[in-house]
Amino acid sequence: MDAARLKQSWSLVAAHGDQVPLYFYSTLFLAYPETRQMFPTNMAGQRDRLVSALGHIVSHVDQVDRLVGFLQELGADHRKFAVRPEHYPAVGEALVATLRHFLGEEWTEELAADWTAAYGLISQVMIEAAQSAEAVSPPWWVAEILGHERRTFDVAVLTVRPQYLLPFTPGQSIGVSHPAARTWRYYSPANAPRPDGTLELHVRATPGGVVSSRLVYGCAVGDQIHLASPVGDRLTLWPAGSSDLLLLAGGTGWAPVKALVEQVAAEGAGRRVDLYVGARSRMEFYDTDAIDKLAASHPWLTVNYVVGADPLRPGEFVHVADRALADGDWRSRHVYVCGSDEMVSHSVAALTRAGYQAGQLHHEGFGKHWYGPTWRTATAPDESGGVR
């Protein structure tokens, strides 16, 4: 299997843009119509995920250690779509047909052998990971909504209780879906693990968001939703050791940050924690009672609210990171950033310019990626994982 040849051929195919996933799914559904029910009605985000996943796999095809972990997580996660081992050959056929179509005269027997071998390894790792996951967790958990509070027009705080324990680490994300929807949205629980197993979810309804809109506007106490296994470790505390922390949160990006604060409190490690919570206007601070209660309960926690837009200064916008940098030098601390892609990218750029090292900056990735536990997108709210 020639890694360079695989990368070169994929770059030629990917240059065709949206036509690639369109051809792939048309081929798959025509040849195997039973697979259509596994995908959401709106395929826009799904098309983005296919190209992103393949691009990630091919770009790391010569980095086996990194790629295997990605594929194992992908295989285990796909159980929630009812993907079974017998579905993989169908996908492989559609993939090869798509590559052959777009490469045209560039398609050779050597490339066919390379891609067949590569897909064989990919499917083997994913299938084995799914089978291993079956021994320790279900494809999804059924959870009952115990509390549903509308905090603003488009933000709701839900308390849900899985039928049995869903283990997670603060900072991770879990898949959330409604039984009436065939799509998943990833949210980070806004609490550290509790003895009763309940989870707190902060949900902002996004335009066109099937899951988020239903959770905010179409759910009530007593309803049931589905939860998927936790994924991602970019926002977990383990890389920070016992260091003091600077936490920057924007909008509902406060949710995983809240869980981190609860974890620090539970550990009693004696960290100093400075928290900056930002919103575009004062009306959009939706969880101030909980924030103020945490600050009053823990002397090691300092809280600062940052209002982005000031009516007295039209055209100006105050960013959370800029306010934090103006307040002090935090370069001895690990910094956790969570919010919209715009907020996170601005914060990381500002911190980097100020001399902060990549190893001390913790955040989720940017842009359209294969799904949303570790990656966020600002342009396809539900189907690509969503934005905080």
Biggest sheet strand order reads 4-3-6-1-2-5
Mean pLDDT level: 86
Rg, please?
22 Å
H/E topology pattern: HHHHHHEEEEEHEEHEHEHEHE
Helix content: 25-40%
Q: What structural category arises from helix and sheet content?
A: alpha/beta
Helix count equals 11
Per DSSP E runs of 2 or more residues, the count of β-strands stands at 11
Distance between the termini: 40 Å
Proportion of residues in extended strands: 15-25%
Shape: globular
Give an overview in words:
The protein is α/β, with parallel strands linked by helices and 388 residues long. 39% of the residues lie in helices and 16% in strands. It has helices at residues 3-14, 19-31, 44-59, 64-77, 87-103, 109-134, 210-217, 254-267, 288-297, 320-327, 341-353, and strands at 141-150, 155-162, 174-177, 185-187, 199-204, 224-227, 245-250, 273-279, 301-307, 334-338, 361-362. Strands 4-3-6-1-2-5 form a six-stranded antiparallel beta sheet. The chain has a five-stranded parallel beta sheet with strand order 9-8-7-10-11, sandwiched between helices. Helix 2 packs across helix 5 and helix 5 (87-103) runs antiparallel to helix 6 (109-134). The longest helix is centred in the first third of the chain and has 26 residues, at 109-134. The radius of gyration is 22 Å and the shape is globular.
